[in-house]
Amino acid sequence: SCGVELVKSKTPVLHTSAALFRFKLGQAISKDSATAGQVGDLVDQLLESHDDIALYLDPVTMASAEDASSAHPGMSLAQPESLIRLMLGVDSLQPRLIRTLLEKFPEFIGDEGAKEHLGETKTSIKILRQLRWLDYIVDSSELTEKLLETLGFVPPDMQSEIISALPDIISDSDSGQVSKVLALMLKETPELMLPILETMGSLECSPALLTDARNSVITHLVSAEPLDLPVMVKFLLQSGSSENSMAIIQRVRRRLDMESIVLASRQMAKSAATDDQAPDVLIFDVITTSLRSHKHLRDAWLKIAAADDEEVGPQTTLDIV
Length: 321
Known about the structure:
mainly alpha, 62% helix
């Protein structure tokens, strides 16, 4: 009656627009409180089978071209949403659905090697995608707590996926809590430094947390892999302020051995083992972009490069930027 046709082991068919489906389902639940429990039980049953779960995490089939165009007004070529994603847009269903999804999440981790080998998207990744860019989160604190709890027992590759997705999932009000956890992980799991830094750069962090994070990055700057350095340098430069920019720049200049990095870049280019751009070029690009975008960084770097004293040290290759 809400516009979705469900047939066992087949992709759900949507006979109306996404907005109208959500409206009808929400209205049906508001008229009868028992309906929410029944729909929740139905979803539990749909997600129970590992063989069929992808049917409800992948886009639904639109019954007609007219329905497809009305599913996303003004975006007729947009891909339809999944059934689970459609239901997550119903406030009265969302908290239970999120709990169900995150409870299912660990079931697929560690058992997806064959699927990855075949080039298919992991089911765990599909589950995570359902939670990204939701228009509204009914209980953001519970969602954030569940995600952070999940971070504690999944393998590193899945930790990286969750960390990278956090800015697209959590509410702004939960940024502080997430930042504290990530700052601690930065010290305990340096192998996750890149996704942590990229995510922390998108969250609101306290000055104290940023200082701790920068200290952790500086510590690993000398021993880091060349391809990791551009992200690390970007975080160091762009996480500072006009008050501490000179101190940050001086630490970067002292710790970053560009001669070794250039040599490593040349060796990588000779081996032709990667299509990635050379680390030294990426580092120069990061510094150039940062100086152009932030006047306080540009002024601080020029002041340091022009200075001639023991505290600043001799000019470096980086100063020619």
